[in-house]
Amino acid sequence: MNSSNKQRIGLVGTGFIASGFARLVHNHAPDLDLSVVLTRRPLGQTDGFPFPAKLTPSVQELLDKSDLIVECSGDVLHATSVIDAALRAGKPVVTMNSEFHVTTGSWFADKGLLTEAEGDQPGSIAALREEAVMMGFKPLVYGNMKGFLNHHPKPEEMAYWAGKQGISVEQTTSFTDGTKIQIEQALVANGFGATITRQGMEGPKAIDVTKAAIELARTASGVGQAISDYVLAPGNAGVFVVGTHDQSEWKALNYLKLGDGPYYVLVRPFHLCQYEIIKTVRRVLHGGGVLLNNSSQPTLSIVGIAKTDLPVGTRIHRAIGGFQVRGEAARIGDVRGHVPIGMIQDAVITRPVSAGQTLSFDDVELPDTLALAIARQLYA
């Protein structure tokens, strides 16, 4: 801790999430000090980030000036490298980067304190699960709500909505084509020992979220294991957990408006991303430990599926949020040799890939990074 007795928070990233978190700490957390912010952008080209004097290009400066690090760059390769350095230096790390977790995060799960934050859907589901378990519920479904799905959105449409919503085209595309929700629910499943019923999950369309959630719980009961899934429910937002409870509590739960059972749906109708990260930061600083990570023994990964034919020599700047590849959750044992979509970055296609094909490590040339070495050991 520094001489002012404030906990020093180091931040990785300068985008929408990072900027919002930085403003929150500065304006509403007098016990915390946003001490340093790691960026890869030229220091004179960070328009929009509210505290340019905090910026550094140096990972070592980030480590030296931080008691805890918040990573929300959204970049798998960069996050892997920075988090490796942070954990080696004994720094606890709080993330809002589910892409990192489902790609290389398991490698680090037992190498220090590493947790995803509340705020994005996986952390919000984890927090709701924690509350449910404390109240005696036995979770069967870890659920997400999605408003719209189009596996093949057009670039001009994504540019329009990105501008309207004030986020990047890559983010907008990954939300629209389903990749992001697949990533999020795989992280939840891995973190809590749940599974999926099939590649890509069920994702039923729902006018009534509660009814659809209960149907998923019936499915989970048939499987004999908790599942992670989502409902396609336009106009709804948030996350849910479906669980059972002691039969003796039926009458009380019915009185409390949770229905007749045996499946009870708990809904959290919001997730506030950057504004909720601080709750997990305080959790860690106060000794509360991990909220959610990908576990050291994941069972699910995110395969990359070609949206279009990819000839030899095709360059893929970044698959997540692009127009060449989308992601689906799959059991690792069913997709041996697949390359996780989070690894398909600065990549070149080395043999022809047809639309609809799942990409393997043999189909792409990838940059030589720490993330690649880890991914090969986890998934190849």
Low-confidence stretches: none
The helix fraction, in percent, is: 25-40%
Order of helices and strands: EHEEHEHEHEHEHHHHEEHEHEEEEEH
Strand order of the largest sheet: 3-2-1-4-5-6
What is the overall number of helices?
A: 12
Q: What is the overall shape?
A: globular
- Structural class, by secondary structure, is alpha/beta
Task: Give the tags.
alpha/beta, Rossmann fold, Type Iii Antifreeze Protein Isoform Hplc 12, 6-stranded parallel β-sheet
Structural features, described:
- With 380 residues, the protein is an alpha/beta fold.
- It folds into three domains: 123 residues, NAD(P)-binding Rossmann-like Domain (Rossmann fold); 151 residues; 80 residues, Type Iii Antifreeze Protein Isoform Hplc 12 (Alpha-Beta Complex).
- It has twelve helices and 15 strands.
- Strands 3-2-1-4-5-6 form a six-stranded parallel sheet, with helices on both faces. Strands 8-7-9-10 form a four-stranded mixed sheet, sandwiched between helices. Strands 12-14-15 form a three-stranded antiparallel sheet, with no helix packed on it.
- Helix 4 links the parallel strand 5 and strand 6.
- The longest helix has 15 residues.
